[in-house]
Amino acid sequence: MVSNTVNTGTVTRADLAEALYTEIGLSRSDSADLVESVIGHVSDALLKGENVKLAGFGTFLLREKSERIGRNPKTGVEVAITPRRVLVFKPSQVLRERVDSALSPKK
Fold first, then answer.
1. Confidence at residue 63, expressed as pLDDT on a 0 to 100 scale
2. Name one GO biological process term (predicted).
3. SS3 at position 11
4. 40, 90: one domain
5. What is the distance between the alpha carbons of residues 93 and 100, in angstroms, rounded to a whole number?
6. Nearest alpha carbon to residue 58 among 28, 22, 95
7. In b/e form, how buried is each residue of 3-37, taking b as 16+ CB within 10 angstroms?
8. In angstroms, rounded to a whole number, what is the distance separating the alpha carbons of residues 81 and 44?
9. Sheet with 52-54: strands ordered across
10. Residue span of the structural domain in which 42 resides
11. Which CATH number do you get for residue 55?
C-alpha cells in the first residue's frame, strides 16, 4: 500500500520507491532504480506507438484525434484544432471496483 507522507493527494516516484523499500525489502537505491526502469519501459513503448496493458490496473492507449473546429470559451471565436495523438488511460474492471468500494460510503 502506497501512502503519502506529505498527503498531497499525489503519489510520486519517491513514494513508489519507498513502498518497494518498505514492503518488499529492496534497498532504497534498487527500489528507485526499479521504479525508473518500469516508467522508462512504459514510456518507451508509448513513444513507439504501442499500447501498454497492465493486468489488474489498466491500459494506456494512444488515440488519434482528427482536425476539428473548436471555440475559444472566452471570446467565442472559432478556431481550427489540429489533428494530434493523445494518451488516454482506461482503468481495468478490477481497479474500478477497488476504487468504487474504497470511495463508497461505509454503512
1. 95
2. regulation of DNA-templated transcription
3. coil
4. no
5. 10
6. 95
7. eeeeeeeeeeeebbbbbbbeeeeeeeeebbeebee
8. 27
9. 52-54, 58-65, 84-91
10. 1-48
11. 4.10.520.10
At 37 the pLDDT is 97
Per-residue tens of pLDDT for the chain, all 107 residues: 555 455 678 999 999 999 999 999 999 999 999 999 999 999 999 999 999 999 999 999 999 999 999 999 999 999 999 999 999 999 999 999 999 998 888 76
The cell numbers describing 47, all together, are 513513444
Grid coordinates representing 26 are 529492496
Beta strand 84-91 pairing with 78-81 = unpaired
Are 70 and 33 in a shared domain?
no
Residues 6+ apart with CB under 8 A from 32: 13, 14, 17
